[in-house]
Amino acid sequence: MMGRRPGSGEGNLGLRTASAAVLAPAALGAAYLGGPVFIAAVGAAGLLAWLELRRLLGKPVVGVAGAAGVTGLVAACVLFAVFGAPAAVAAAAAAALVVAGTERGRPRTRAGSLAGAGIVLFLVVVTLALRGDDPAGRATIFWLFAVVWASDTGAYAAGRTFGGPRLAPRISPSKTWAGAAGGVAAGVGASILLGWLMPLAGWVVERPSLASLLAAGALASIVGQAGDLAESALKRRVGADDSGTLIPGHGGILDRVDAYAAAAFALILATVLSGGQPPWSYSP
What we know:
Blueprint: H1 13-33, H2 35-56, H3 64-83, H4 85-102, H5 107-131, H6 135-162, E1 166-168, E2 172-176, H7 177-201, H8 210-238, H9 253-273
Antiparallel strand pairs: 1-2
Helix pairs in contact: 1-2, 2-3, 2-5, 3-4, 3-5, 4-5, 5-6, 5-9, 6-7, 6-8, 6-9, 7-8, 8-9
């Protein structure tokens, strides 16, 4: 990330707080309801992220490649609602290939477009799959939101309070080791808190073990912070402070979902490898 601008993504605590006060309840409400409401909300967020990514990379928003991404997002959401995750995955993969095939430029440019389209499209499918249509999915997505948001807040607060050595000065000069540690601590705390609340809400059968909550919270925070750094590296490469201006005090939507995206991909991978369940018991 480049130097901060007044009122830009990371520089205005008041705007950050006000935006979070609006967006967080909306996201949690959609996640709680699930079904068509959540699918529509995730699809809309994915569409905004795709258009923002095109602009960030200097690619035409209106064009064959851009339209292919939009079509793929709509198809993935509809197919998920009707046929489930496998059909949505197939639609996302096909759309990403069409984007790369129709993109103008050198092979390296097309490879970058393939990666960008793949990340946005598959993130939409992964988010829908993690939520599912049962109470356990509600627990999963609430846990993920809580850990990522807590990690982000903890890193921001600890970094501003303690300062100290920079974490990755060539990529994001504002991030510090103290902030990274604060993010992990906050993420672990949120993981434990959500783990203890899940049974009270009736979303899971039994309280997860402390060890599993510690490990899952730490992993999600670390991977999420790595995703944040990856997006910072992309912005630095294209000479941008923020990915956009959609969210006052935060920047663009990509600035808000970078850590979530990395953590979501890690969680779905861990879920698949563990036999199809996150580290808590499903409710009947």
